[in-house]
Amino acid sequence: MPLPKAELHLHIEGTLEPELAFALAARNGVELPYADTEELRKAYLFDDLQSFLDLYYGLMAVLRTEADFEELADAYLARAAAQGVRHAEIFFDPQAHTARGIPFATVVEGLGRALDRSEERHGVSTRLIMCFLRDQSAESAMATLEEAKPHLRRITGVGLDSAEVGHPPSKFAAVYEAAGALGLRKVAHAGEEGPAAYVREALDVLGVERIDHGLRCMEDPELVERLVRERVPLTLCPLSNVRLRAVDILEEHPLPRMMAAGLLCTVNSDDPAYFGGYVDDTFRAVHEALGIGQEGLRELARNSFEAAFLDGGPEEEALRARYLAEVAAYTFD
Ligand code: ADE
Ligand code: ZN
């Protein structure tokens, strides 16, 4: 049995495995520019974030109906459960679908159908986080928040993703303020390819509670000190950082230094269908490549539940306590 953990940085569209992509393409009459799954997998050699995003957004063409989104999420939850995930906070990119003519409701209701059954079917509690595409306009983000209003019972928070450099968090100040006023939680990708200054902006201008990635905070010792002091969780994705060339090789990932500095680190899979592993695969990889031992892995698992949005009342706190007890009681084999 794998170590129990929460996954806090996972793009549901990034769980689209080549086999499902081809099955959905056939079902929906979508022509893919690859002969088969093998040829598609061969295209998974990325130079940077943008080269990945081009393929990632392109492949989304196969997702068209509520049933497609439901199947995508259900397949992820089954895999996640097998990897020890007990709680998943799942990102989705509504603008990548509405721009193709897929209604917002189709996306959120399809995902929601799978999430509704997740505890019973997979033993995984879930939350949904709606991301704004930062390379689209601030107006488009605001229109997306407006579209989300009839579906807020399904949405816990907002995030910010896509091409980072040149699209600082401050561009989205107004939409984050509006999201906060609606009671939504706030996170943002920052410091993946963008500078440490974007991490500061996400905290100071957007008021985020967690930073997604945050890798480049290590270039700014004062920022590190602040993140430690304020116990700001970082949702790191080491396999993603290697595949998108934020670090050269896993053995050089700063995770051990970040943990040693006292940062509240979590380890996540980002887009596991593209980056060579789901979350327990990632735990194993950092154990092997970075020498993070059993107690280090346990710390990462504990952090994941501490950083989860499980503070909405006594029932959620009890669930968090139960998960933390599972981590404490876990014996490695
Ligand atoms: N969308 C999906 N994966 C992403 C990543 N790693 N960074 C930014 N946007 C993303
Ligand atoms: Zn991400």
From TrEMBL:
Listed SUPFAM superfamilies: Metallo-dependent hydrolases (SSF51556)
Lineage: Bacteria, Bacillati, Actinomycetota, Actinomycetes, Kitasatosporales
Name of this protein: Adenine deaminase
Reaction(s) catalysed by this chain's protein: adenine + H2O + H(+) = hypoxanthine + NH4(+)
Keywords per UniProt: Hydrolase, Metal-binding, Nucleotide metabolism, Zinc
Stated role: Catalyzes the hydrolytic deamination of adenine to hypoxanthine. Plays an important role in the purine salvage pathway and in nitrogen catabolism.
Cofactor note as given: Binds 1 zinc ion per subunit.
Site annotation Important for catalytic activity: residues: H213
NCBIfam families reported in the protein's UniProt record: aden_deam, PRK09358.1-6
Active site: E192
EC number: 3.5.4.2
UniProt binding sites for Zn(2+): H9, H11, H189, D270
GO MF, one annotated term: zinc ion binding
InterPro entries linked: A_deaminase_dom (IPR001365), ADE (IPR028892), Ado/ade_deaminase (IPR006330), Metal_Hydrolase (IPR032466)
Family, similarity comment: Belongs to the metallo-dependent hydrolases superfamily. Adenosine and AMP deaminases family. Adenine deaminase type 2 subfamily.
